[in-house]
UniProtKB/TrEMBL annotation:
<keyword id="KW-1133">Transmembrane helix</keyword>
<keyword id="KW-0812">Transmembrane</keyword>
<keyword id="KW-0472">Membrane</keyword>
<dbReference type="InterPro" id="IPR051907">
    <property type="entry name" value="DoxX-like_oxidoreductase"/>
</dbReference>
<dbReference type="InterPro" id="IPR032808">
    <property type="entry name" value="DoxX"/>
</dbReference>
<comment type="similarity">
    <text>Belongs to the DoxX family.</text>
</comment>
<protein>
    <submittedName>
        <fullName>Putative oxidoreductase</fullName>
    </submittedName>
</protein>
<feature type="transmembrane region" description="Helical">
    <location>
        <begin position="62"/>
        <end position="80"/>
    </location>
</feature>
<feature type="transmembrane region" description="Helical">
    <location>
        <begin position="124"/>
        <end position="143"/>
    </location>
</feature>
<dbReference type="GO" id="GO:0005886">
    <property type="term" value="C:plasma membrane"/>
</dbReference>
<feature type="transmembrane region" description="Helical">
    <location>
        <begin position="87"/>
        <end position="108"/>
    </location>
</feature>
<keyword id="KW-1003">Cell membrane</keyword>
<feature type="transmembrane region" description="Helical">
    <location>
        <begin position="28"/>
        <end position="50"/>
    </location>
</feature>
<dbReference type="Pfam" id="PF07681">
    <property type="entry name" value="DoxX"/>
</dbReference>
Length: 148
């Protein structure tokens, strides 16, 4: 361990097998949320457009297409660990924005507030995981590690 000028410890270590395995598992678990969602947006495109219209967002067809592309390509990038930091950052910002538009529990009817708050909080936690992945990278079991 070394110290910086601010006396904050800096740990430099080679990732262990468990760290690499956990990073892969984390990427796969995060991708398992986005890949099916992106595919369902394509297969139920009209419904997705209608849902986007219901919250008053402009250009709902374009928004639905962009959402599907972000979710599918982002999930695939996480699965194989390709440009993981960028994919995680894009998915994180996307998820954070979607939370405020689609799970605004503070504006929901009383009978829907608890469910919307649960979904909002879940998305905030997922965003946190994505931001950690963006900060730390994909780990050794990834295409990113092979490119380095």
């Amino acid at each position: 361990m070394t110290t910086t000028t601010l006396n904050a410890p800096v740990v430099t270590a080679t990732p262990t097998g468990i760290q690499s395995s956990l990073a892969l598992a984390g990427r796969l678990l995060l991708a398992s949320l986005f890949l099916p969602a992106g595919i369902s947006k394509l297969t139920g495109f009209a419904g997705t457009v209608g849902y986007i219209q219901s919250v008053g967002l402009p250009f709902p067809e374009l928004a639905a297409a962009v959402a599907a592309i972000v979710e599918i390509l982002g999930a695939l990038a996480l699965i194989v660990g390709y440009r993981t930091r960028i994919a995680a950052l894009v998915l994180g910002v996307f998820t954070l924005a979607a939370s405020f538009f689609f799970h605004a529990y503070w504006a929901a009817p009383a009978d829907a507030q608890m469910m919307q708050q649960l979904l909002f909080n879940k998305n905030i936690a997922v965003t946190g995981g994505l931001f950690v992945l963006a900060a730390l990278g994909a780990g050794c079991l990834s295409l990113d590690a092979r490119r380095a």
